[in-house]
## 1
Amino acid sequence: MKKTLLILIGLMLGLTTSIALLAGHDDREGDEHHEYHESDHDDDDDRKGWLRRFAGSNITAQNRDRKQDPAFGTYADECGDCHMAYPPDMLSKESWSVLMTNLEDHFGDNAELDAETAGKIGRFLDRYGANTMNGVQSSKPARISDTRWFRAQHHEIPARMVKNNPGVKSFSRCEACHTRAAEGRFNEHDVRIPGFGYWDD
Amino acid sequence: MTTNESGKIRVWDPVVRTFHWTLVLSFLVAWVTEDELMTPHVWAGYLITVLLLIRIVWGFIGTPHARFRDFVYSPAVIRGYISKMFSRSEPRYLGHNPAGGVMVTLLILSLLITVISGIALYGNTDLAGPMAGIFQGEYSADIFEEVHEFFANFTLFLVILHIGGVTWSSVAHRENLAKSMLTGIKEVKES
Amino acid sequence: MIIPFLIGILLMTSLSIASASDIDSMLASYRDEGATGFSAERGKLLWTSTRLIDGEERACSSCHTADPVARGRHVKTGKTIEPIAVSANPERFTDVSKTEKWFRRNCKWTLGRECTPQEKGDLLTWLGGQQE
C-alpha cells in the first residue's frame, strides 16, 4: 500500500509543480496570448446570466451596508463629482485618511472641502475602508490602482487596452470597462474594453 | 459488517456513504457556481475541505472497507488486476477493487489540491477567506489560479473515468455499485 | 386666453429673477469686498487665458471648453461636465456654497491661487448673461 500511495502522491505533486511553473512563466508586459473576443461570447453570457439573477456576486456584505449609511449620499455626491465614487473597501482606512488630509493636492487636482463635509466623509471612509489588521494594506499606496490586489487582477492587461486606449486612458476609470461598476459589481464577465470587446481569461 | 440470511452484507458504512454523496453535490455546486456566485462556490469548497479531512481520518480508523489499507493495493496487484480486465476475467471485490482504490486515492488528492489552491487564490486576489492577505503577489495569483483551474478540471476528468469504471464493474459483476454506495449493501457471491 | 400667457410670462420672469438674484447676491457680497464694475468681457478673457501651473498649461476652458454652453470633460477622468452657462443650464450658481466651493478649488488649480472677488464677479457676469 505504501508504495502505491507514494507513487500517486508523487505524481500529483509533480503535476502541481509543473502547472505552477508553467503559470509563473506567463508574459508580464503586454501579455498577448490572453486575447479578447468579440461577440462570439454571447452564449456564454446567457448560460451564466440566469445564475447571476439568483444572487449577487462579488459584493461583500460590507459593501452592501455602506449604501444604507446616512453619509453615503454625501460621499457619492462629493467624491463622484469628477470620477466614479469608488467602493471604500478598495483602499485601506489608513490610505483614505492620508488622502482626506491632502485634498488640495488630490492626484494633481484640487478637491478641497469645507471642514464639516470633509469630516463626515472621512468618518464614512473609516467605517467602510479596508482593515489593515492582517497586513493586507498599508497607507502606501495611496491609489486604488497601485494596491497589490488591484495590480494582481489587472496585470495581464496590456497598455494598448488601457493607457494607450482613447476610450479608457487610465485604470482610475473603472466604469470605462466594468459595465456594472456603478452597482459595485466588477466581475470580469461584465467587462467590455472599449475598442476590444470582452476580456477572456 | 452484518450478514443476514439472504446473503446480503453491509459493505459501506454511513460515514463513507454520506461523505460520497455530499461530495457529489458539493462538487456539482462548486462547478456550476465557479467565479459567478462566489458565496455558494466558496462554501461548497469549504464543505469539500471538511469532507476530505473527515474521510482521510476515517480512512485510518473507520470500518474495514473504509480504510485505505483495504483498498490501496501494491503496484503489482494493481497491474495484475488491470491486465485481467483486458481479458474480462478480473475478480470481484467487496470493497473497492485495486483500480477503484487508485481512483479513490487520486480523487482525494486532486480535490485536496483543488481546495487548497482555491483557498489560497481566494485569499490572494479577493483578500477573503482563511488565507486572506497571506499572499499578495501578482505571480502567486497566477499560479494559484492555474493550479486551481487545472485540478478542478482534472477532478472532473477523474469523475468521468470513475463513473465509467463503476459502470464497467457493475456490468461485469452484475451488480449495481451506485446503489450499493447509497444503501451500503452488497450481495455475498460465491467466488 | 391671455391669462395663461400672462401666468407663463410671470413664471418665466420669476424663474430668471430667482437665478439672477442668487448671482446678484453673490455680486453684492463681492462689491462689499471691494470689487467694482463687473465686466463680462474680462470674465471671458479670464476663462480662456492659460497659465503654466506645476508644469501644466491650465485654463478654465481645459475642462469646461471655451464655449460655456457646450458640455465639457474632466481633463483626467473624462467625466462629462454639464454646460456652465446659466442659459444652457439654469441650475448653475443657484447654490451659493456650492459655487464658492468650486471657485475655491478650481481657481486654485487653474490660477494657482484663489480668485479675487473682482474676478469671480466678472466670471459670474459673463456666465450668467450668456445668450443661447
## 2
Amino acid sequence: MSGVVVVAESRRGELREVSLELISAASAVAQEMGEPLSVAVIGSDCAKFSGALAADGVSEVLTVQAPGDGFEADLWAAAVEGLIDAESPSLVMLGHTIDSMGFAPAVAARRGLGFASDVVAVGWSDGLRVRRGAYGDKLIAELEFPGKTCSIVTVRPGIFPPATAGAGSAQARSVQVPMEGVARTAHVSYEEAASGGVDITKAEFLLSIGRGIEDKDNVPRFEELAAKLGATLSSSRPLVDAGWMPSARQVGQSGKTVKPRVYLALGISGAVQHLAGMRNADTIIAVNRDPEAPIFNVAHYGAVADLFEIADELDAFA
Amino acid sequence: MRIVVAVKQVAALDEEFELLVDGRSVDPDYLEWDLNEWDTFSLEAALQLRDALDGDGHEVVAVTIGEEEAQEGLLACLAKGADRAVRVWDESLRDSDVLAVARVLAAVIERESPDLVLCGVQSSDAVNGATGVALSGFLGLAHVAVVKHIELDGTTVTVQRELEGGLVEILTLPLPALLTIQTGINEPRYATLRAIKQAREKPLESLSLGELGLDHGAVAAAAGSRVVSIAHPERGEGAQMLEGAPAEVAARIVEIVRDRMTG
Amino acid sequence: MARDPKYDILFEPIQIGPKTLKNRFYQVPHCIGAGSEKPGMQAYHRGMKAEGGWGACCTEYCSIHPESDDTSRVSARIWDDGDVQNLAAMCDRLHEFGALAGIELWYGGPHAPCMESRATPRGPSQIASDFELNIFPRNMDQDDIDTVQQMYVDAAIRAREAGFDIVYVYGAHAYMPFQFLSPFYNRRSDKYGGSFENRARFWRESLIKVREAVGDDCAIASRFAVDHLLGPISIQVGEDGKRFVEHCDDVVDLWDFTVGDIAEWGQNAGPSRFFEENHEKPYTGQIKAGNHTNKPVVGVGRITNPDTMVAIIRSGQFDIIGAARPSISDPFLPQKIEEGRLDDIRECIGCNQCISRWEIGGPPMVCTQNATAGEEYRRGWHPEKFHPAANSEKSVLVIGAGPAGMECAMILGKREMSAVHLVEAHKQIGGCVNWISQLGHSDGKENIFRGTARGLGEWSRIVNYRQIQLDKLRNVEVHTNSRLSAEDVLGYGAEIVIVATGCHYATDGMNAATHAPIPGADTSLDWQLTPDEVVSGAKQIGKRVLVLENEAYFMGVSVAQKLAGEGHDVTLVTQAGDIAGYMHYTLEAPMLHRDLERLGVHIHTYTMLDSIEPGVCHAYDVWNPAETHDFEVDTVVLCTARISDDELYRELKADKERLASEGIEGLYIIGDASAPRMIVDSVFDGHRLAREIDSPTPEMPLPFIRERRLWGDSSNATYLGQLSSTADISLV
C-alpha cells in the first residue's frame, strides 16, 4: 500500500473549501511518507473540479463518476472502496464533514481499515500518527494505527490553510467503479434554513450567548445589551434547540459560519461544532465561569467570570 | 416492530482531574457519568415511533457497551420506557476505539434482528461521530447520519438530514435501516419515580464477549486505532486572560471592542 | 479542591494592635436580635461564621450603660457581670475556631429612647433626635462627659474580661462620639464644641482612655462614618472626615469606615435595589487613597464577589474586607473560596430582610438566601451540615420549583433522600422570583442623595444558587415544562408528596382592608391587570394608570416605579398611612420615595377604592368616607390580596384511601401555596419541612429553644432548653 488519497467534497455544484484544506494537510504528510498524493472527486459533475484540485503537491486528480445529482452515502462508500482497490493507498483523507462522516466509518468498518475522525494534526513518523481532541477538546490524544496497511482519517475543517486551487499541473484520470443498484437512499429535496430577516454572517460585531444564560427569560436582557453595544445577537446551538433563539442566529457547524471583527461569547463553552462556526473571527473574547472551557483555546481574550455580572457592567458603559 | 437504540454512558471531567500513570487515560476517580445527551434524543425518537404504531409486540431495546456505570444509563432508558436492555462488557474493551466498539455493538444488535437502529450523532466525551455509521457498515444496513426529523410509513422511512449552514436534505430509505440522531429533534421525556422503580423489573441482560460469539482477537482486529498518549492541549499564546472585579473586566472588554471596531 | 492562587491575598494575616487577624474576612458589627439576653443565639450565630472561616466576628452595637437603651430594638449590653458571662459564650465559641471577637461599645444618646431602662440619655447639645421618636438628650457638662467616658472605660474592662479581642469606640451611624464631632448635633461653645479639634476632643479622649485601660490586651477599633452625606452642615470625607482619621490615627489600631447616619442608614446597608456592590467606595475609599492613615482599614459595601474582594485589597481601597450581610447569607464564604468551591457560595441578594426584623424591634433575624440564619442555636441548624434523614429510603415528589419548592428539594437532597423529583410546570425553575426580579427599575436616572433604582436583578441569585446545587445533587432530578394533575401525582410513585404550587393575585380586588372584592374590579378585562401581568407585558397599558397598593411591601410601588419610568402618568393609592410600609424596615423607603416623587407619581394615602368603572376609579378617604374622589384612568393595576393555588393539594388530600393505596405516606403543602408570604418565609418553610421530614408529624414544626428564665428556678442560671434530636450542631 502506498500513496495518499484525498477525497474532495462538493455540494450543489460548488467545490467545498475543506477540499483545499485537505490537500495542504495531505501534501505535508505525503512528503513525510515520500509518497505521491492524489485527489479524488466523486459525483456526476466531478470532472469540472479537476482543474481546481490540481494544486501544488498533487500528482493526480482521480475522477469517479456516480449517478444522481448529489451525495449519496452508499454511492460514495462504493466510490471510496473502489479507489482503495484501484490505487492501494496507505492513507485516505476526508474532511470531517456531514457528508464524509455519513459513509467513511462504514467503509473503515467493512474493510477493517485504520480509522480516526476529527483529527487536528496528521503526521508520519514510523507509521501514521494523528492527534484529536478528548473529553470534548479538554485534552488532546495522540493515536497510532498498529497493523493497518490503509487508514481512513477525517480532518477537522478550518485547521489547515487551503491550498491554492489549480496551482499545480496534475492531470485528471477517471477511475471506474461499478455503482448499479448500490444506492439505498433516495434524495427527495433540499430545504434552506429559514432566514428570519437577520444575516449574522454580515455582522462586524457579534454578541453571542450560550447555555450559560440559563433562562429563556434572560434573552431579552442580552438583546438589549447587544443593541446598546452596537452588536448583533447570535447564539450557540443549545439555545436554538430549546427554542430560545431562532435558527437564523445560530453560529456553528449546523448554523452559520461567521467572521466578524469582534466575537464576544458569553456563557459558551466552545463545543467543536460551535468553534467551527466562529474560530476565524478577528478578535474572540470569551466569558465563562469554567476555567477549562474549550473556547479559551481559540479565544484571544478570556475572563473566568460570572457572565451576568460582566453583562451588568457592560450595560453601564453602553 | 423492534427498534434498537445504542446508547453510551459518557464521562464528564471534574474541574480538577489527573491522568493515569501510563498517560493514556484520565483517572476514573475524576470522572462523572451520565447518559450521553444525544442518546436521550435517540431514545425519545424510538419511544415516539413505537408509541405511534398500531397493535402490540413492538419494542424498544437499549444496548450499550460499558461496565458498572453503564448499568445506570440502561436503567434510565428502561425507566423512560424502553422495553428491554442489553449490556456487554469485557475488561479487554476498556480502551476500545470506535470501530472495536461498533464491532461488538454489531454482534449484540444482530441477535435482535431489529427493523430500525438509532444512535446518537456523537458522544460528548469521545466525540468521534462515527459509531453509528461504522455500525451500519458492520451490520450492512442502509443508513443516514445527522437526522433531525423522522417519518415512518410502513417499511419506508423519510428523514431530514441536517447539513452545514442549516441546509436540510430530505431523503427516503427502506427498513431495516440505521439512523444517527441529532439533538433538538424532540423533547425527551423524563421518568416518574414509579417508572424508575419499575425499571428494575424490566429485562436487563448482561453479556460477555463469548456469549456473543466474539473473542478478543476478533475485537482487536476490528480496532481502527490505538491511543498512544493524552495530554493537556498546548495553549499556544492561548487567550489573554482578563483579571479583576467585574467592573474592571468589563472596562477592558469595552476597550478591546472599541479598538477593534474603529479603523 | 484547591484555592485559586489569585485569592491568596485574602488569606494573608494582618496585625491589628496586639492581635493578629488570620485572614481578610471580617464580620463587621451587625444586629441579629440576640444581644446579651439570648446568649445561645449570639454565640452560635457568630460562631457559625467563625467555623466558616471568618477571621473576626463582632457583636452588634453593645450598650455600655442603661442610659443607652434602644428597646424595642435589640442591642447587646455589657452592663454587669451577667452580661460578661453571657457574651463570654460568644467569645469562647469564636476562639474555638481561631477567630477574633469584637465588641462595638455604644452609647446612643438621643437616638436611644430608653424605653426599658427609663433612664435619660445625655447628648452634646439639647437637640431632639432626627431618628424617629424625637427624643431629647440632657445637655452634657464636664461631669457628664467624664461620666460617659468612664462608662466606655468600664465597659471596655468588662469586654476584656469576657474575652473580646477587639474593642470599638463606636461613632458611626451618628451615635455619641459622632454627635460631638458633627456640627449637625454639636452647638457647644466650650472646649468640646466649635473648632474641629474641639469637636473631635470627646472621641479622641474616649479612645485614649479606653486604650489606656485595655489597649495592651485588646485592639482598639473605631467605627467612623467618614461622610454623613448631609453636605457642609455635617461631616464630609474631603473635609473633617479625612482630618479626623489623621487626628486619631495614633490612638486607633483598626479603622472601620461607613457612611451616613442612623436616620437613613440604608445609605450604608444599601439594598441591592438601589446600590451596587462596593457602593461606599467613593467615600470610604478616599481615606487610604489619600494616605490619611497608617492603620489597617476595614470597610463594607455588600461585597459578595471574591474577585471584587481581591481588587479592593490590591487597589489599596481597604486592607480588610468587611461584611455583614454577605456573612449572614453565607457564613462559609471564606472556606468556600479556600476550597475552590466558588459555585457553592450563596450570595447575598441585598433584600435587607435580615435588617427588617431588627428594625421592627424584637424578632430574630432571618435571611432569604440562608434559612439557617438565626436558627443555629434555637433549632440546631447548620448551613452546611445535614444529617441523613431517618426515613431517607423514601422517595419524594416536590411539585413546584419556586423558592419553597427549590429549597425543600435541595435540602431533602442534601439529607440523602433516596430520590427527590422536583417537577415544575413552567419551562424554567424559579417560580415568582423569575418575574419579580425584573421589577425595581424606573427610568434609570439618579435621585438626590444617591441611589438609582437599579432593579431587583440580584434577587435572581435565589434561583441561581439553588439551580447549581440541585444540578450537583445526584439524588435529585429536576423536570420542567411538566404540569402534573392529581392523577399524575397519585401514579408518580413517590412516598412523600410536597405541594409547592405558589399563589396568584386576586382578580377581583379582594383585599385585607375591607375583606371584600371591589365592585367593578375584574382583571379578565384588558384594562385591568394583576402585577405579574404588568411584567409579562401581556396587556397594553394606557397613559393614565392607577395602582392600588393594599399589600404594604414592594409589589405595588415597584409596578408604579416601572410604569412611571416608562412614561405613564401613575397614581398610587393605598388605604394605609404610607405606601409600602414594610420597606421602611428594609431601609428602602427613603430612596423609593425620592424616586417616586421625582417621577411625579401621585401618591394618595389613607385612600381606598369604592368601585371601578371603565375610565374611572371611585375612591374615598378612609377616615371620612363621605369625602370621595374620582380618578380618571385608562388602566388599573390591582395589587391586593394573594390567593394560594392549593387546588391540587385539596384534591389529593380529599381522597385518603387513594393516597394510601398508592403508597403515599405523607402529603404536605409549603410556601405561598400554604399561605401567601414573603419570599424569605417561603424559603424558610421549604427548608424547615425538609429538616424535619423525618420527625413524627412533619407538618407541625418541632419546638425550638426559647432562651428564657423559668420562674421559681432559684439558681438564676441560664435556661438551656432541650435541643431536638434533629439538630445538626452540638451544643457545648
